[in-house]
Structures are given as structure tokens and as C-alpha cells.
Amino acid sequence: MLRLLLATTNKGKAAEYRGLLKGLNFELVTLGQAGISGEAEENSTTFEGNARSKAEFYAALSGLLTLADDSGLEVDALGGEPGVRSSRYAGDNAGDAERVSFLLNKLRDIPQDRRQARFRCVIAIAQPGRPTQTAEGTCQGFIALEPKGDNGFGYDPVFFLPEYGKTIAELPPEIKNRISHRGRAARNARRLLVNLNGC
Questions:
Q1: Residue 188 belongs to what H/E stretch?
Q2: CATH code for position 110
Q3: What is the full DSSP assignment across 59-96?
Q4: Could you give the residue numbers annotated as active site?
């Protein structure tokens, strides 16, 4: 069975990928399990650029087939912010609650019907000696007026989906994985991984 390195230190993201990639003929290992402590640079202005950079960095470091992503939130009323800076939007050391609070404060004068937003995810799959491949997924919604729900992480508690009448953090994991940006990108990535594994 081929090993597939999940290039993330985010436990919530790693758990999601284990569910999203379930059934594939790969042994999934995290950076910690592989004993890798190096840190890839994320200085691109695009999600694809950062995903490629991380996947190629950790593939070269480990010699393993590597999956990395870059994902974030784009809010139309903020000109696409926080975008690639989603995890650092409220400062390098801010936690999820601080980032959500910072975002809501920036939107405090914006009415609900003008809070259109999307989550975007780009997955890069890199292997030493082979071209890097990418897959993308998006999820459209609105930024809620206040956080709700305990499922998920990051901006999930304020990402409202009108078709469900709930935030992503209020949805059960099986629904979230089906409709989320990461879920959609992972479905596209599964096809790439199946082709790489020849099964």
C-alpha cells in the first residue's frame, strides 16, 4: 500500500481528509507521524501557488507522494479578504475565536444580504520526479451575524448556508464533507489519486 503524506499540522483538517479519502488504497500519514518538522513557505498570492509550494516542499523532504492544500474565505464586501491570509487575518498567533471576532467586527456595518462569501480550497498532489497536479472546490454562502454551531473549525461557525438555514458548523460531518469546499476539492483529488495508484 502506498503511503500518502497529508501535509498539515491542523488536526481538524487531517481528520477531515481521513474521512474524505476513506476507501482509497493509501496509508495516510501526517507530518508528525512521518517525523517531519520543517515548515514550507506560503508566500504566494494565490491558493494554488501556496498549495503547490507546500506539496512540493514536503514531497522533496519526505520522498513520499504528498497532498497539501491551501484554503480560505473570500468575502465580497471586503474585496475578497481574508483570502490567502485567512489563518493569519487577526494576527499570526490568533485562534479561531479571535479570527471570527475580527472578521465580524470588520463586517459590523454590512447588512446580511451584502455578506456574500465563499470558501475556496485548492489541493496539490506532488511526487518527486512527477508534475504536480491540482484540484479545486468552492462553497458559496454568507457571513452570519454571529457564530453558531460546534462542528468544524476556523470560520465554519459564521459561514451561513441559506439552503440549509444553518452555518457549516451546525451541520453533521457527513453533510459538511459532501458540500464543503474541501469536500468538493477532495472528490476531484480522489480521481487524481486513483490514477496515480493505478487502481
A1: helix 181-197
A2: 3.90.950.10
A3: HHHH-SEEEEEEEEEEEGGGTT-BGGGGGGTT-TT--H
A4: 70
In the chain, the largest separation of any two C-alpha atoms, in whole Å, equals 53
Other CB atoms within a 10 A radius of the CB of residue 75 amount to 21
pLDDT band at 197; cut points 50, 70, 90: low
Chain-centroid distance of CA 177 in Å reads 12
Q: Cα 95 vs. chain centroid, distance in angstroms?
A: 16
- Residue 66 and residue 7 in contact, taking contact as beta carbons nearer than 8 Å: yes
Number of domains in the chain: 1
CA nearest to 3, candidates 89, 72, 51, 63: 63
CB-count burial class (<10 Å; 0-12, 13-18, 19+) for 113? exposed
What domain range includes position 24? 2-197
pTM here is: 0.89
Residues 40 and 59: beta-carbon distance below 8 Å: no
Judging by beta carbons within 10 Å of its beta carbon (0-12, 13-18, 19+), is residue 130 exposed, middle or buried? exposed
Query: How far is residue 66's CA from residue 78's CA, in Å, rounded to a whole number?
Result: 33
In tens, the pLDDT along 115-170 reads 999 999 999 999 999 999 999 999 999 999 999 999 888 999 999 999 999 999 99
